[in-house]
Amino acid sequence: MELVTPFATSMGVETHEEHIIVKIDSGGIMGWGECVVEHSPLYSSETVKTAWHILEDFLMPGIINKNLQTVQNAVDSWKWIRGHRMAKAGLESAIWDVFAKMQNKSLSKILGGTFDRVEIGVSVGIQSSPDKLIETVERYLQKGYKRIKIKIAPGKDLEFISPLRKEFPDIQLQVDANSAYTLKDIDIFKAMDDYNLVMIEQPLGYDDIYEHSKLQEEIKTPICLDESIHSLNDAKAAVELGSCKIINIKPGRVGGFTESKLIHDYCAEQKIPVWHGGMLESGIGRAGNLALASLPNFTLPGDISASKRYYKEDIVEPEFVINNDGTMDVPTEPGIGVNVTKEKLDKVTLTKKEFT
Ligand code: OSB
Ligand code: MG
To answer: Quick check: CB of 176 below 6 Å from ligand 1?
Structure first.
């Protein structure tokens, strides 16, 4: 699917998103999930091809014709497969959708959600100049987004943060480095303490936990980990070491809603706020994200934006829209709570495979 505007980060520029949609027919009940893998191993080591391989050769054969009584049965059945969390999460979410629809309940309900609307924000890619950034942010603020996250990279950090903060002294502002820095850049992060940022997301190595604890010791602004957290164990290590004060949860990155809930519950006990990240999902993934973000410890606005912020035309109906108060409604219909529009999905489908 073609993005409405190219999305530039410290990892590169994306113009299209290529994901895998999982559809399960369980005795006539249709479950939908989205694998948030991308074409290239930039954000994650997984790609569309690795996820396709793991789904085709291991995950699908493992569940076809199995009499699964619970989602946990499915999760247990693929525990032996190491890694490949995005592949697993895409399938797990489709299974959650089936179970929710069987019980005639929304995904939010069966996941333990408590909010009926969630606070949302927007993730703004690196712009060509600080003026362009101010203009872009202004446009999102006018659309109702109350929390702005900007992507940063070496040479494109304080030069952008400083004028943006001057223009908008009071907005909830945070930055995301996608692992573009090392501890040698510590002075840049110390300088960021002057800009009242809600958090600095993933400044250091994409699988580092230890060095982030060294950085967090030296700065006041909370560090939030994204890329580094793949499991409950990673979350425990990060919290115990003091590597971050906030955690971003993406079900794809941690292997599904089951692991997401474990991290959510642990962080609630530890008084670590969490928020829902995004992977430029279509409406299928977004619906699941909203359901998960309705759990009580998702106390910071998520990277969950309106369908139109990403794509000219979403593949679900109704499309997701932002409310006037900067929130988004959590779907209440059974399962993911939106209908996948077959013609729109077919139009963007590159290849498909059926397992029976
Ligand atoms: O680091 O949060 C990230 C998109 C792709 C890969 C990584 C990230 C992102 C975003 C976009 O920031 C969030 C969204 O879906 O709105
Ligand atoms: Mg991030």
So the answer is: yes
